[in-house]
Amino acid sequence: MPHSKRTATGVLGGLLGLIGLSTVAALLVTATITPAIAVSGYAATSAIKMFENMPSYLKIEKLMLPTTIYAKDDEGKDVKLTEFYDQNRIPVTFDQVNPVMYDAILSSEDKNFYTHGGIDLLGTLSALARNASSGSNRGGSSITQQYVKNVLQQTCEAKAVSTEEVQACFKESTANRGTEGYQRKIQEMRYAIQLEKEYSKDDILLGYLNIAHFGGTVYGIGAAARHYFDTTPDKLTIGQAAVIAGMVQEPNTLRIDRPDGSTTTSDGTPVNGAGDGYKLSKARQVYVLNRLLEDKKITQAEHDEAVAAPLEPKITSRPQGCSEAKGAEFFCAYVTSIIRSDPAFGEEPNDRIAALRRGGLSVYTTLDVSLQDAANEAISVVPSHVDYMDLGASGVQVEVGTGRVLSMVQNRPWADQADDKTTTQVNYNVPARNGGGGHSAGSTYKVFSLINWMQQGHSVNEMLNGRVGTKTVQTCDGATQTVYTGEGTGPDGQPRIGNFEGNRGYTGTVARFTKDSLNSGFLTMAEKIPVCTTNKVAGDLGVTLGNGQPLDQNNNPYDVLGSQDVAPIDMANAYAAIASNGTLCAAKAIDRVVDADGEEQPIPDTKCERKLSEDVAATAAYVLQSVMTGSGTGSGARTFDGVPIFGKTGIHQFLHTWMIGSSTEVTTAVWVGNVKGQERLENHYESGYRLSRIRNSIWPAMQRAANEEFGGSKFPEPSAELTKRSYARLPSVIGLDVDAATDRIEDAGFSVVVGEPVSSPEAEGTIVSQTPGAGRVVSGTTVTINPSDGEGVVVPGVSGTPEQAARALSDAGFRNVAQTCEDDDGAPAKGVVTGTDPAAGETVSRDTTITIEYQSSDCDGNGDGDRDGGGDGGGGNGRGNGPGNGNGP
Question: Can you count the helices (H) and strands (E) in the chain?
Fold first, then answer.
């Protein structure tokens, strides 16, 4: 690698350059032996000047090492998910290498290593002479010089971002031809002398064996022993050590992991494969064995045995990438997306890629293997591929109070070469920035309207008219938009927004709207709380559009019903904030990062911040618990394990179905729907479930597994203020017809029951009574109204004797008349009328019995249908106590 400018005199050109280099080489070697030298001649002087201007210190950077990603198993132990690397390397210590490996590399590459001062002068001069005369690029460098070359090359490659840049690094660090080759050699020589002064021979030799290239992505003796012979460096045989030592000259040509041949002849014939016994590698092995024998490092017998033995590689691959994180591929992809994007792993994108593939990091993730296994089993009820639609499904679990992602699964498996039909690399759980996207949230989004309602001072027990009809929804900043709810189409020709199964809605509480997921009820809420404020609540709780844009950029009325695309992991974190008493924790996938030296490294900053008051969070949890009970829409997803849970269901136009819920410890979000397309879920069944309801199989299985491992406690009690009953003024509807009365009462926020018609002289259908009456009553009270039957008669006022009163009532059309007498000494014997029952002025039917009430000084003599009569002439139906029976006239 050229580190200084060429001299104007061109000391490295042609034969003069060779002479100058020879002089410098002599100087360099002498400098390691004697304190002073003297040279003369123009070439030597120029070479010395250039040498003095070259850098003298070589910084040895950390080796490029694989990064390993770990998860926790059910015993709390760290288990490897996968690795990522550009260079397959397993560093070893000096005593972890069989001495025969050291002998093999030294005998074949630098037999004088332990006696020279960093430069093999004769070898270098010989090589340079060959280069000057024939253009050869073969070495002649000492082990120390080769180590320098590898360090320079790796330093360059560590910054490379493309294959082309890696190739350029190789060319720069291995150039042997012409001026650049001479200059590189001189620079290597100077660096070599410096290294020999700073490091021991053993350190340099080990450093070289740990950094050297052994073909393909195999670097270092540890990986070479494992890859080619499935062993460790301390167990290498003489023959194996000779094969590996021989590779350093031409690693990709002499590699023995390609049975079909590692190279070809000029006419394309494969060479150096299993068919020819790895011809080139065998020849190089024999060369190394000969050098070992010559240097008396092995015996003749050992030499002959190794030469006679055929090359028998035992190739052991070292898989890498997310495809190796079996069962957790998409979580792996999520983790790597964080590493590639978060500043904790480097300021620039290339730095972060280098950290992942070359940094030698140990990344300890939040994944819980037991929960992941349970989630994979739960999601398996959804096929990976069906013919009738582009079917997707996903599930994600986060720890309440920390944001730690515990599991992440989906139905369609991962593949490195995905076809996006049966396999994919799209992560359905996460937003686009992490390799995913989003799906319409459906009614799971209604939780943000619920929270917004409370944050604006409303009680969840406030009554609203949630019946279908025309709604004037507030979008934002005073703007409104008309929405038509119910069946069919609205006046604008657009389909009305309906409720599930054609429900006509009702006047009820916001809590009940949530339990029943009543669309018309939530649109009624949006008449009082603007859509943009609801979208802002979602944004404050960490939810964005799947593409990362804010939710409140459009503020469509239908947003409150979950029309916008969001990522399940964002929704899970928002629900977890409710379960953690209002504290939102950003999703966290990485617990710790440790470098190759065992030093703790920074991790992505995932803060926990209070976003909801404790009262709002507790009351939201209280309302969402009702969703999972009785007739609540989430009752089909109950866990039946005794752990308190809350939840919310969601279906968006039957294209997507959701279930999100939580204990106090773990939140689970499940989505099933169209990855692309508009196929309706309710038209299809899988695993015995209608697709629109298959969430009721997945979600409880995942949540039960979490409950078993993490448990859960009771949620806090709701706020008294946010659950209080509100009062409203009930209007009078007396005199209105049934429809007008119903509209007036419902518009005031009350429910209406039309009772049986009652007798009244008013026109038939006219409201003649309401219960309770007009005035201040509990908001949302059910009001009973009674219309007139149109056949009522007013009881007339009567006076005089009972006989006169009876004639008046008969004349008024009453057919049933009775009498009752009260003794009064001051009253006339014939009696005087005091009133009637029903009283005068009341409206009754003509068949109603009217009882005449009168006083008499002789009730017994006048007869009394309600008491005993006396003697002969006893009137009415009384039975006398005197002689004979009184039968009345």
Answer: 26, 31
